[in-house]
Every structure is written in structure tokens, then in C-alpha cells.
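ugh ok so i messed up the first submission bc i forgot one of the chains. this is the corrected input, ALL of the components this time, i swear. 896 residues overall. if the numbers dont match what u have on ur side tell me asap before i send this to the collaborators (the ones from the other lab, u know who)
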Amino acid sequence: MTKQNDLLNLLLYASNQELEQQIPYIYPSDLLDVINDDNLEEEIIYKIINRLPNDMIGQLLDEEEQEDKYELLLRVQQNRHSAVLEEMSSDELVDMFETIEDKSIVDDLMAALTQENKSDVELLMTYEPDTAGGIMATEFINLYDNKKVQQVLEYLQEIKDQVESQYALYVTDKQNTLKGVVSLSDIATTEFSVPISDIMNPNVISVHYDMDQEDVAKVFDKYNLPVIPVIDDDNHILGIVTFDDIIEVITQEATADIHQLAGIDADEDADSSVKETVRSRIPWLIINLLTATVSSSIVAYFSSTIAQVVALAALMPIVTGMGGNVGSQTYTFTIRSLATGKLDKSNERLVFNREMKAAFINGIIISILAFFLGTFIGQDLQIGIIVGASMLLSMLFAAALGYLIPSVLNKMDIDPAIASSVLVTTLTDSFGFLVFLGLSTTFMEYLL
Amino acid sequence: MTKQNDLLNLLLYASNQELEQQIPYIYPSDLLDVINDDNLEEEIIYKIINRLPNDMIGQLLDEEEQEDKYELLLRVQQNRHSAVLEEMSSDELVDMFETIEDKSIVDDLMAALTQENKSDVELLMTYEPDTAGGIMATEFINLYDNKKVQQVLEYLQEIKDQVESQYALYVTDKQNTLKGVVSLSDIATTEFSVPISDIMNPNVISVHYDMDQEDVAKVFDKYNLPVIPVIDDDNHILGIVTFDDIIEVITQEATADIHQLAGIDADEDADSSVKETVRSRIPWLIINLLTATVSSSIVAYFSSTIAQVVALAALMPIVTGMGGNVGSQTYTFTIRSLATGKLDKSNERLVFNREMKAAFINGIIISILAFFLGTFIGQDLQIGIIVGASMLLSMLFAAALGYLIPSVLNKMDIDPAIASSVLVTTLTDSFGFLVFLGLSTTFMEYLL
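and heres the new structure output, hopefully the right one now
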């Protein structure tokens, strides 16, 4: 808090000269905290923003949440828009444009860009949002391999502003074909007279522009690189993806999986409106209502059995509930292991066997407990046996489906996080009711 | 695959000289893929590993999964162990030591370390694993602020090996107090004659050694920095955390949340044994069995109502199931939003109101559908009304608890991912049975 207050005071009361001196040491995210404080008056926010130099406003726009970028731009004096847009990252510009509903505004803003920036933005807009091309930035530094380290250092000094938040330099030919990579630490640790061709790594880890962002994240995770270039079919470099994009992707994808497992939209968040929340959740509820009628019909089919032994009605939910728990443990584990790449062809049989063995052991333990519980609640040893037996069968069935359904969906290239839960739950519930009430009906003579 | 084969051929058949030339361009993770191929004979793996230079083996050990590091070390010739350990990162060394059960082996390995490395490892072992101190490395570069850029470049050339995968240099005084930070790109873009004090940023974003790793990840996400220094109470720099540690933390924490929501251990994975799997899952199943008896007793209490109208038995699971779905949608959303920091004090009332409004709208829609379904299955308009009404009440109850329980647990500093699901499910189920069977009993005269 005091940090935020100090910054606010600086922004409001420092002389222009003092502010200018301090600006390089201020982090855009800290500045955003200050201007996004709800207690601040609009007028003061406007005043603060317009005291800032163009490049800092550009950084603020880069850092601001996608849906708030344009609102922030509207607080900048109109005559500075063009200069400020020029300072933004091309990928962040595209993100901002995507949120503006009135396309004539986008056209006006595009018209204010330099030709180079404009064609970068137009290029980026052609890629799918969830691919390497969709998350890359077009700002990267390339050089030819005939340069020496000292020349490169001098070149970097010249283009200082572009080097900020770059971690590697790419060696290309005149056609932009990627020939090698040199990290900034290579540059900083090599004697000035060494040619770049001697220190560049020709074995460049790159990703194709249409690679899914989740797979791009796996490449980052594997190689621990801060930046990876994006290429086309002919190995031309198109842009770069950096670790901070990937941190966002991983968080986003984990949220998507967690949400989808519970039947809510991947991108619902705390800012969603009531309408969006309803839309995000009602489809799953309707599907569940409909599938629940399947298991309900099974119960209805056995209503004469229940009428004869009412204790069964009280025990039913325990049997199906336990099947449901085992099912969700298994599909959750399977879905997450597929997502993180820990479960693949190499170990699928092993994991399936382990799942079934664990379900069998858990099934035996729980069935014995359930037998005592059933005997106690049903006031009948025979009911206890039926509860125990159908519990064990339900748990094994749930474990098998909990593993197989997401695995098969994954092989069919369907996101297992979306459909597994409803399929496993419906089938497990139905099976549980069927086994429990079926066994009870078969052995009815012993229960009366 | 061909890439892996090419690499295998190089490792097996290249001359020593050729291999030496190629080594700098080989990524440790690619090498691990080769030697971890199950089809490769042990003898060949041994041969490959021992052709590699010490620093590459050190990098392999750094990269290898924690539980497999020591196994890899055992494949290295005994007389090279000491040299190879010296090449490892201090934090990875600690990770490896933690997996060795026989502590006398750890003592022997520790004895082989240089004094400096040994004290780094001993220091790291004192920190909690899930904190900044527990994930940091002690390899960082510090310098004094009286140096000029050219001197720094020359110094970096001297200590070349230590600069690999460093992104920033830390300016300290003789007591190691952190005074500022200079990024490698600052160094590479500033004229040689400028003193470091002119370009260092005194406003260093740092984290305290006991900060929870999840909070460290939030600092990275906020500032988009590739590296953040770890400090003690007196602002002495102790180590650094880099973006690749954070990518691992985010993936780990998301897995933990997903697992815990389904009632399995945070660290269960595809390598877990049957025993570990059973241990990970049985506690949750037992808890659920016991809590299910609570709702079961409620049903048992109403057994005379069910005996009179058996259709109720078939409809019950639909009512409680729908409450369960709304509950899990709401607690999942709440838990994830708390974890990503999107839900906090500033918007908690807003989000709660939105949740309740959405639950009300969804409740009305689903209740109307359920009314028709209940009328159809129960063959009775009155039963339809009771199904609809208890559904609406259950859904509102589930939404309220689904929001409130994780929020309160979070304020009590209890991880909401662990306990929310069982609490919300038990209470929602019980409430569902109670309302549905209670209403049915009260209006029994209309149902017969």
C-alpha cells in the first residue's frame, strides 16, 4: 500500500524533470495498480496518464487486461493515440482490436499505424488465437552471421529500445530463413572479435505457427528457454513467443480444464456478467437433468421392489454416490495426466492396470464398511451383503470408465475435460442403480 | 523421431572430436529422451553417458525428473561423481538428495562437494520446499556499482560458464545487500563507458525466502520478469528464482487443485504405485461413505412417505443431483478464481451477488423443466410441483454454499480445494433430500 501511495504522490506532485528521471525505474504493473484504484477520480487518472511518456503508455496498454486496453486508450489524449499505438507490441494491439465491437474504430486506429506495424497486425490477425501464431509477437531482432560480437553490441546500442525484453537474437539470411540463435548471454560473454557464426547455435528449437498453444507450452517446459521463435513451412521466422505468454497459457489452460470438469465455460471469470454466467452453466445443468432421467427411469422400473423394502431407497444414494466418487477420482486423474503429458502411449497399459488394482483394493475396503453400514441401516444382514457387492461392482465399473472414456476421447481428438464427466457420471449412476436394485429384486425372497 | 535417431547415432558413432564440437548445440532434454528410451540396452546407455563431458552430465542431472536423478547419477563412472555434482545447480542437487533414502549416501555425496557448494546445499535444505527459498538456486551474479559496462562485459567473459541461463546481474554492497538490478539487455545496449550505477534499477522486485511458491508465481505473472531475486529480512540476496521454476510451480499447483477437487492427493501421478494410489484415494472415499450416511439417514427417516408414494424414490436422485451440480460449478469457480487471484476482497460481494442471481435464473429454468419431468415420471401434477420447488431451493442453497464455504476456508487460511467439495456436497445432498421428502410429507394428502 505505501508503495502504491508513494507512486501516486510521485505521479501527482513530482516536477516533470523528476518524473522523467524516475520513469525508467517504474514497473508498468505497479502503475496500473495506481490508475485502476477504484477510489481515484476519473479526472486524476486522466491527468496521471497524460503526464506519462508515449513508451510508458504503450507498456501500460501492453500490460493491461485484454478487455480493459481500449478503455485505457480512451483516457489518452486523442492527438497522442497514433504515437502510443506505435509503442505497443503487435500482439497486444491485435488483442485490443479484437475487443472493439465497432469495426470502423478499428479501421481508424489501423490507419494511424505505420505501414510496418500495420502489416504486422494484419498478419497476426490471420492466425488462430490459440496457436503459436496467435500468441506470438512480431518484435524480434535478427542479424546476419558475418557480424562480429563487437559490431553486434554496437548495433544493439543503436536499437536500444527494441532490445528491451529480448533474450535472444536470431541469425537469418536475406530471405529471413532461420539459420541459428544467439542468446544475449552468449553475446555478453564472448570476446568482442569473435564472429557470430562461431557462437550461434544452428540447432534452433522453434515452433510452427499453427501449433496449439498447449503444445507450445510443452516445448517451453521441455527446453526451459525464455523465448522460442515461430516459423512457417519454409523455416522463415515470423515472430517469437516468450515465457510470459506461456505462463499465461498454462494458467488459462489449467483454468479451462478445471472449469470444464465442473461443467462451466473455460473463459468464465470473476468479471463475467449474470447473463454470461447463466449461459456458461445452464447447458451442463440441462444435460445433467436429462441424463439423470435415465437413471431415474431405472429406479422407477424397480418401484415394486422399493415398495416392498423401503430401506433400499435410503441405501441407493450411497451406492451410486460411491461409484460417482471413484469415477470422478479416476477421470480427473486421467484428464490431468493427459494434459500434462505424464500419461501417453508409453505407459497407458501400466496406468490402466494400476487404476483397476487400486479400485479393487479400495472397493474391498469400502464394501466391507458399506456392508456393516447397510446391515445397520437396512436392519438386515442380507441387505448389507447386497450393498457391499453392488458397491464393489460399481466402483470397478466407475474406475474402468473413468480411465477409458477420457483416454478414448483424447485419441479421437476430443477434449476429454469437456465430455468425460457427464458420460462417466451418467453411466456409473445407471449401472449403480441397476446392479443394486437388480440384485435386490433377484434376492428379494431373502430380504423380506 | 528422426531427430532422436540422429542424436543417438552421433552419440554412438561420432569421433570424440566430432562429439566435442557438437555438444554445445545439443539440448539436455533431447539427450534425456535418447537415454530414457526403454528400447535402449543398459550397456549402451552407460556408454553414451560416459562419453559426455562433466558439464553436460551436470545439465542432464539438472533436467532429469527429481525421482530419476539419482538413478542417472548411478550410471556415471564413480570417479566422475564429484566433478559432475559440482556442475549441477544447487537447488537440483538438493532435490536429488531428498529422494535418496539412505542418508549415509547423501553424506558421502555431500563430502565430495566443494566447501562453497556444500554450504549452499546446506542452506537450501533449511527452507520449506514450497517457498521461494525452497525453489531458488544460489547461482547468481553480483557486482559492485562502481564498474563500467565494458569492465562488466570483460568480467562476464571471464566467468562465461556461470553466465549461462542468467538474465540479470545484481548490484550489491560488500555485505551482499541488494542495491539494484541490471538486465543482460541493459548491459548489451549501453555504451561501454557508462558506469553500472547509471543504468541499474534501484527499484528491485524481490521476494522474501519464506513467501509461498504460489505467491511467487503471482509476482512473476504481474511483472513478467524472467528472474526474481530472493532476499532475507535485511535485504541480503540469497538466490534467484527463474521463469522455468515458475512454469513448474504453476503446473504443479494447478494439478494439486484439480486433484484435490476430486479427492486425490496433490502429488499422485502416473508413476505412483498401486499402494500410493490407494493411499491417495481411500481417505476421501471413506469420508464420503460416512457423510453419505447422513443423507441416507434423512431418507430413512422419511421411509413411510416413500412407502406411500414410491415414485418419490425415483425422483429424489434428480433433485439432489442437480443441487450437487450447481454446488460443484460454484465451488469450482470460486476455488479457481481465488487461486488465480481474480477473486479478492475488492469484488467478493459483486461475485456473490452474481452467483446468486445466476443460480436463481438457472434454478427457474431447470425447475420448470423438472416440473414437467416430475409430472411425467411421477404421473402426478402435484409431484411435479414439489420436484420443481425443491429443485429451485436446492440450487439456491448449493450456490450459496458453493460460494461461501471456499471463501470462508480461504479466509481461515485453509486450502479451499481440499475441504470445500466434501462439505458442499454433504450439506447440499442432505438439504435436497430434506426439502424434497419434507415437502412431500407435508403435502402428502395431495399426492395420494
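quick check: Chain A has a mean pLDDT of 92. that seems consistent at least. Residues 382 and 446 of chain A are 7 Å apart (CA to CA).
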